[in-house]
Amino acid sequence: xxxxxxxxxIGKYRLLNKNDKIAVAVSGGKDSTTILYILKQLGYNVEALxxxxxxxNFSRKNLDNVKHFCAENKIKLHVFSYKNEYSYSLPEIQQIxxxxxxxxxxxxVCGVLRRNLLNKxxxxxxxxxxxxxxxxxxxxxxxxxxxxxxxxxxxxxxGPKTGLIDSKGFVPRVKPMYFIREKEIERFSKKQGFNVNYxxxxxxxxxxxxxxxxxLDNYEKENKNVKENITGYFLxxxxxLEKRYENNKEINKxxxxxxxxxxxxxxxxxxxxxx
Length: 275
Ligand SMILES: [Zn+2]
Description:
Elements: H1 2-12, E1 22-25, H2 30-41, E2 46-52, H3 56-72, E3 77-81, H4 82-86, H5 90-99, H6 106-124, E4 129-131, H7 136-148, H8 152-155, E5 161-162, E6 173-174, H9 182-192, H10 207-222, H11 226-246, E7 252-253, E8 260-261, H12 267-273
Parallel strand pairs: 1-2, 1-4, 2-3, 4-6
Antiparallel strand pairs: 5-6, 7-8
Helix pairs in contact: 2-9, 7-10, 7-11
Bound molecules: zinc ion.
């Protein structure tokens, strides 16, 4: 069932081709492990990219799970760490930001650093696509968060397929589980007996997203399609959002690191520059 739904999404949105060399960003959690497993089953040419953010036991356990899963399923695994690439682990970055009184949320910082590293590695390793484990709940939550904080410009890159700006610097990012509920993925993962981490990241900045998550789960009791309705609405206005916010910006090379970005200096370098 979940496999068929994923295959349908891939077909409908032309997310992947059979001859693509595909990198799956795998964290050691249920979502990314599930999509890696299903894409392999569907016969796609997949390899796994794992980023070790350096949260002691949590990260070590995730890395163990990913290694074990990839060995068992004969999937090539590439591992990179914040410590090696950026000189600091995520907890170290967090400490420095707190000490310097820089008000950046862990998840935003980690999101920028991870996206940047995944894109760079996927590109240098010659992958055609980068797959993430985003699900329907993530999509609905993210759109509402951007709507409620008046940051619709951020939503322009939240569709099932992003990074499509015609630039060699960006590897297209695709989300084949865009229409799958988190609960359904969890059931599948448990049924398959995947050895994955069901706990959320200990550094997760809980407050805001959690509020939205709880509200949406509550609405869902009254209106079981609320998440589909939100993402459906978003997908309808997405062409407009893309036109308004994405396509009119030229792609530059970051003055500091040379990676493709839309400003003079990329967000990653802004964050690292603060440390
Ligand atoms: Zn940069």
